[in-house]
Amino acid sequence: MKVRGAVIRSSPGPLEVAEMELEDPRPDEVQVKMVASGMCHSDDHHVTGDSPLDPCPFALGHEGAGIVTKAGPNSKGIAEGDHVVFSAIPSCGHCRWCATGRSNLCDLAAGILAGPRWTDGSYRLRLPDGQPVGQLCGISTFAEHTTASLDSVVKIDDDIPLDKACLIGCAVSTGWGSAVNVADVQPGDTVIVYGIGGLGASALQGARFAGAQNVIAVDPVAFKREQAPVFGATHAVASAEEASELARQFTDGQGADSAIVTVGVLGADHVRQAFGAVRKAGTAVITSIGPHDAVGAPISLHELTLHQKRLQGSLFGATNGNWDVRRLINLYRAGDLKLDEMITRTYSLDEVAQGYADLHAGKNIRGVVTFA
Ligand SMILES: NC(=O)c1ccc[n+]([C@@H]2O[C@H](COP(=O)([O-])OP(=O)(O)OC[C@H]3O[C@@H](n4cnc5c(N)ncnc54)[C@H](O)[C@@H]3O)[C@@H](O)[C@H]2O)c1
Ligand SMILES: [Zn+2]
Ligand SMILES: [Zn+2]
């Protein structure tokens, strides 16, 4: 079928809307009519070249939800009409990582920036001239329809609005999990979250729900600081220095129990700040992504050893898509997880580049592309 979707023809390269030919689902695949797709900063890393995609063209979008329109053979209980959230990280269910309950590290993730099917290297999308188009994360959710592996979809109940649930496909799972799973926030903790976009707003919620007493949001943008309390921040400041100072005030000078970095573009200085802000045996969680060839961060090697500090990366918040998407949906239904409040503005597919301009201008907690 013919679909319109947001593509880049080179990386770096601008995001534009193009018409493409989409294959029908093969065995173990479904075709989905997209309802909504959140605008994660990670897509922008492919536009800027911080995280180059090769070969291009590539169809972007990895935070989506929609309704199954066709199920291929062997669809394992997923049928036409089912509502699904896409998991940005697929899980095969039987690799070492899936089998040991760490499906965010599934070996299939090796293929999420490659483009073609991870089974046989064939492509589901093509430009009108026949040129193959890669699918970001194997799902390319900034498109009217997409065809994807069953390993990337999670069926959810029909009563949940898909234009809100889409956020769980990346931002909410990753941000919430960075606090709850990776920082392992405990009741009474003092937590710093740097960068209040979709991920940071979710990390604030996770930290607060896990029982943190002091949740300090850091963002240079005033609008983000105004919004932070909606998601559970008890304090909001403009700089890392102010956050460190506050955390020490709350902890008799010791420092934060954990510090979670969710800024838009990771730099060495963000790692230094988070590592320096935590107490003895505290955890600095690095969730942000920076330039692919960046190496090194100026952390104190003495503090690493003698203060027994932990510097911990976070992929997909160490969540297990198949269970955690449903868990987060249940929290949303109960009013314990805020999704509606995270969506500052919606955009049409044709406005996708404007949406990313607004992301850079700090105008949105999350922008979401919605499809008619
Ligand atoms: N690890 C993972 O699995 C994973 C998954 C998705 C996204 N990411 C990454 O997480 C990061 C955040 O994504 P997002 O979509 O929420 O981004 P976003 O652009 O929506 O939000 C980033 C926020 O950081 C703020 N910021 C910028 N510099 C700052 C600084 N020095 N101190 C404090 N705040 C600062 C911005 O004002 C903005 O509010 C990106 O790097 C993205 O690629 C990682
Ligand atoms: Zn696996
Ligand atoms: Zn994402």
Task: Tell me the domain tally.
Answer: 2
The helix/strand order is: EEEHEEEHEEEEHHEHEHEHEHEHEHEHE
Share of helix among residues?
Answer: 25-40%
Strand content: 25-35%
The CATH architecture of the largest domain is Alpha-Beta Complex
Contiguous runs where pLDDT drops below 50 for at least 5 residues: none
CATH H-level superfamily of the largest domain = Medium-chain alcohol dehydrogenases, catalytic domain
Can you give a write-up of this model?
This protein is an alpha/beta fold and 372 residues long. It has two domains: 2-169 and 339-370, Medium-chain alcohol dehydrogenases, catalytic domain (Quinone Oxidoreductase, Chain A, domain 1, Alpha-Beta Complex); 175-315, Rossmann fold (3-Layer(aba) Sandwich), CATH 3.40.50.720. The protein is 26% helix and 26% strand. It contains eleven helices and 18 strands. The strands form three sheets. Strands 3, 5, 6, 9, 10, 17 and 18 form a seven-stranded mixed beta sheet that branches. The radius of gyration is 20 Å and the shape is globular. The structure holds nicotinamide-adenine-dinucleotide and zinc ion (2 copies).
Helices and strands, with pairings:
Blueprint: E1 2-8, E2 15-22, E3 29-38, H1 41-48, E4 58-59, E5 64-71, E6 83-86, H2 96-99, E7 125-126, E8 132-135, E9 145-149, E10 153-156, H3 162-165, H4 171-182, E11 190-194, H5 198-209, E12 214-218, H6 222-227, E13 235-237, H7 240-250, E14 256-261, H8 268-277, E15 278-286, H9 301-306, E16 310-313, H10 321-333, E17 343-347, H11 352-360, E18 366-370
Parallel strand pairs: 4-8, 11-12, 11-14, 12-13, 14-15, 15-16, 17-18
Antiparallel strand pairs: 1-2, 1-4, 2-7, 3-5, 3-9, 3-18, 5-6, 6-10, 7-8
Helix pairs in contact: 4-5, 7-8
The structure holds nicotinamide-adenine-dinucleotide and zinc ion (2 copies).
